[in-house]
Request: fold
Amino acid sequence: MSGPILFLDSGVGGLSVLRAVAERLPDAPLVYCADSAGFPYGTKGEAEVSARVAGLLGRLTERLQPSLVVIACNTASTIALGYVRPVLPVAVVGTVPAIKPAAETSVSRVIGVLGTEATVRQPYVAELSARFAGDCRVLKHGSAALVEAAEAKLRGEVVDSSVYRGALEGLLAQPGGDRMDVVVLACTHFPLVAEELAAVAPRPLRFVDGAAGIARRCAHLLEGRNWPGARAEGIAIFTGGIAGGAALRPALQGFGLQRVEDF
Ligand code: DGL
Reply:
């Protein structure tokens, strides 16, 4: 397939991944799909998330013939990656919690995983912790409010700082939380509010996410591919209707997505 790189998330979170890929592959055409009709994923059950993601990616892939699919969502990736990979006719890159780089840099050996409620309960996360952070205490916390805060920020709304404080407190208040030095932003919405989280942290914490690694992986998979001419206009697709995307237009343009379409 010779089409664009296709990104999928429930909302705007995947833009944190798109940004890293766009920097690495400046000429690649990009299509970003926000499954706004299914937002949020993090409070839904596994079967529902799997069915949505598989159905939507099947339809999008048929229509757009992408060169590569990036599931720019930890919730969808930790739940559905294993189901969609074998059935899609294109390579699929997932977004999984950056537990490995967090464990590599933690001095205190206490790391936090801040994701959605659905992500932090996935066996995938327990497996990553056992494999890459076996000698660390791994604290987990799911926050739907933080997902909403990132959406609101990109719509240009003011978010009360208690939301950020509350999300961090969910980790810091756990046994061992006083020694936590690295926090994995295990939801793609959260790097969009990393500055706000850092501003309310009671002491300096290191925040890590997987975007740079995903960009490297995309560049590797698409090595040798040329996209002649200037980069095509980026396209944002909303499954819940364009109206829902209207307030996001300025933010979308900041990420190079000039066109907004319905799906
Ligand atoms: N951005 C998504 C993630 O990385 C989830 C947000 C949601 O709850 O829909 O997990």
Notes: The chain has two domains: 5-95+212-262, 99-209.
